[in-house]
Write a structure and sequence with these properties.
The structure holds two protein chains of two kinds. Chain A is mostly helical. Helix content of chain A is 72%, strand content 1%. Chain A has a two-stranded antiparallel ribbon with strand order 1-2. The two termini of chain A are 19 Å apart. Chain B is mainly alpha-helical. Chain B is globular. The chains are: A mainly alpha, B mainly alpha. At the A-B interface, helix 5, helix 10 and helix 12 of A face helix 5, helix 10 and helix 12 of B.
Chain lengths: 327, 326
Amino acid sequence: MPSPPRLLFFLAGMAGLTALPFIAEWLGVPAATTLATSMLIYGIAAASLNLALGHGGLVSFGHAAFLGLGGYVVGILYHHFVSEAPVFGWFAGTNQLVVTVPAAMLVCGLAAACIGALSLRTSGVQFIMITLAFAQMLFFLFVSLKAYGGDDGLIVRRRNVLPGLDTRDDTTFYFVCLVIAAGCWWLMQRFTRSRFGVVLAGVRQSERRMAALGFTPYAYKLVAFIVSGMGTGLAGALLANHLRFVSPDMLHWTKSGELMVMVVLGGVGTLWGPWLGAAALVALETVFAAWSENWQIFLGLVLLAVVLLTRGGLDRLLRLMSGRRAS
Amino acid sequence: MVSPPPLRGTSLAKLGRNGGNRGTLVLEQLLNGVQLGVMLFLLAAGLTLVFGIMGVINLAHGSLYMIGAYAGAVVAAKTGSFLVAFPTALLAAAAVGMLMETVVIRRLYARDHLDQVLATFALILIFNELITITVGRQPLFVSVPPVLNGSVELLPGLKYPAYRLAIIAVGLLIAVGLYGLIQHTRVGMLVRAGATHRDMVRALGVDVRLLCTLVFGLGALLAGLAGVMAGPILAVQVGMGEQILIMTFVVVVIGGVGSIRGAFFGALIVGIVDTLLRAFLPSLLRQVMQGSEADALGAGLASMGVYLLMAVVLLVRPRGLFAVHA
């Protein structure tokens, strides 16, 4: 079980997040619920990336590939559900969330296995670039797939359905995302203290030493990469439902950059960091975009300041403020 | 969210393409490939030197290319003279580059790749918006300088635009010049030494900081050169830097990080492969499928081509074709 303060934080956070849609309604800003849904979904993506980036030390510059792939699984299944033509002439499309989300995770897991198995033969800057290369390949593949909208993407006219719930209602969908996000958080915190997590941390610190201890670093890194890809795919599937739209933009390399920004902004390799980072980035983008047409310049300046001036991101900042020793 | 550049692939395709000419099409496309190749080389040379010596991944290298292109386009529009615009663009890019090095990049030498990627990603956002604020979102078009506004008959039946030939000539001249500079001068010796034994060079009393600023300035100058030369071929617009940047990274990684020779051959390979795929893949596909679908799929597969090439090279030779570091 999590340590008492961690559990306390978690429960307090959950209570706040559960109350959020009602407070938003009461304050007359229902848009806050939609915004919070975005934050949760990007939080899942960032936490997943953090698994590879922070815990495994695998600087992947291609995680948008999994985000987009997850989204496209939802989009393509829905497309076939509406047109009633079987996917690849083989199986029927669907709009059931309990089918599309696992399907997206499965596809992303397979993709991550292929990309990871090849990419992990390199390291350092070459690893960054080869993951980028694979993401670009997928990006151009989806741009060229005219059958699935090409450049324009696919519209998911109605959100995937869940038995007994009205997912078309933004508040309901928010709670669906909240439950999934909480599950991801719980798995993450279990993961960091599991045997696998400890070995992975060892591999990050000294691959040679772990090899000498009898572990095969490659296998651990590959599994971390696959799980990371699956988590990002899950986020992609939710994002496609949230926005009711998928397009190659979800696979664009700037999206990979954004996911990395979230992780670093929050704190690399920390439990809370990616969630804080995702929330902060989504909030910053919303605030700046409302404020000025040229909002990206502010985002750039904030980002530059964070990278150059702080080490450890928001997570460390909060720890320092709460007077606890940074771990 | 960060908006992706409006055009993807298309304007890069323009960099290395012009109208058809039946019999000599392949030769013409090869020349187009070489022309795209030398452009990529100008960018890759700077990028690979910066990475080789300082160990910094500079995503904002494409921004220097964009600044060169914009400075050239704006000055050419104001003065009407390419001769004035050309050196202004080079100076602007070099100046911004050296400023960037002293203010931001210098602090990143000791950081890990992740911090470098993010800080330079932030620089891209800042530069793109600065250009939008000062010049606007409308793409600028630059006319070809009148002297080069014709075509040259290279072989009977093979006419090729003089401006593109001039780009190839300038690119090759720069390649030879860089080779001379790196291999046969004292500064070049320090650069080579810095790429392989940085700490030793520092220990011998060389001002590595100054060397870094100079090398960064040189890289920025070359990026600006590529930018100002690209002006008349394609629309000068925000986002043009990122498109070519990713291709440049492919070049650097294929050639071997830190190697000028690798950058040169990598750039030619990538330029030619990309151009030929774009030129001929759609028509090949059209023989097995419908016209419009073949064009779309062909364009997509052609865009994937160089990334596939890079993945294969990295898998066979993880450090690139002409790796410097042992």
